Amino acid sequence: MIFAVKRHAERVGERHAVQDRHAQGRKDALAEYPYEAAGNLAAQKAVRRCRCWAAPILSPGGSSRHNPIDRAGMLLSPSEIRTFLGVVHMIDVRVTKKHKETDDIYSFELSAMEGHGLPPFSAGSHIDVYLENGITRQYSLYNNIAENRNYCIAVLNAPASRGGSRYMAEVVQQGDRLRISPPRNMFPLQDGGDFYLLVAGGIGITPILSMASHLNRRGKNFAVHYCARTAAGMAFRELLQQAPFAGRVALHTDDGPLEQSFNPDAVIAGAPDGSHLYVCGPNGFMENLISTGRRLGWTDDRLHCESFGSGGVVTNSHGEAFTLRLVRSGLEFIVPPDRSVASVLNENGIAIPLSCEQGMCGTCLIPVVEGEPDHRDTFLTDAEHARNDLFTACCSRSKGPVLSVDL
After folding, report:
1. Number of domains, the chain
2. Which residue in 149, 161, 199, 344 has its CB near the most CB atoms, within 10 A?
């Protein structure tokens, strides 16, 4: 069973073979499949799809209420669901360092508790941080992958924070204990590139730092462009200027001299043939760079991005009201313009597991039976969006008046 699930994870097109497995078999297989540390994004997505079938069994209060999914003639207990959903895949760490990098950016060094090690990670990886206030947020690891004794993350205490970054910045202190997930990589470096163009905007510098360190250790050709509004708001500026690859780094600020301004056209057009672009930062910043690359003839397989606000991709969940029809349970709910599918379902006792709540992690995937989803996530690929058989309940909506889902 375990090997069958792994084979499917490598061949995402055979998704239905996994979706039709019985609940007990999926639970046994996935409990042993270390998807969090896998570098294969397709494998991670396949496992997420398996998980979404059992998601609604546990209500927010911890009791089984509607239990709409019973694919094997059996129901899993709340504790089994927590295990199935990966809640047990947590690591206890200690905050060994907390440093104020700028007025609104804090860095944290997380070290394993005594007697325990930390799983290895690859450049571009992130971890989930489970906070005491019930919020889970994703943060990129910015340290060198060779440093396996700790994880380093940075948090932007944004004014529009929904509680995660503010809690990290104002409540979490050096010496505190946190729970995190093993690293996952949804922004991996592609092997075999002749040249790597790494571009960061604001807090998006975190995965770019790890990538630059890794490429430098491997003797690869690359360049780093780091953009920020002001020099004072540029986190890790001294670290970059003192790095072994400092000669490959260009810093750009809105308040600096004209000659150091960032020119996307010039930077992308000046990259060698066959280069790969990796960009992380605010949505508008990323979209500008990706569209510039396409306009200059770069193919999509050479354009890579990951967007962060204070802790994840920023997504607008508003839209027209629609009816959500749960095929298996026979229930129907109206999803108002200002509410997400996940919030409506959770409010009515049908628990949808949430993590980033911003369309980035895939935790809340739900199978679609009929209707056309209005995809607003960055977890699924364009091809997966086109299939319309899954959608993210935290941010995606419906293009039509009714969306039927397999719950």
Report:
1. 3
2. 199
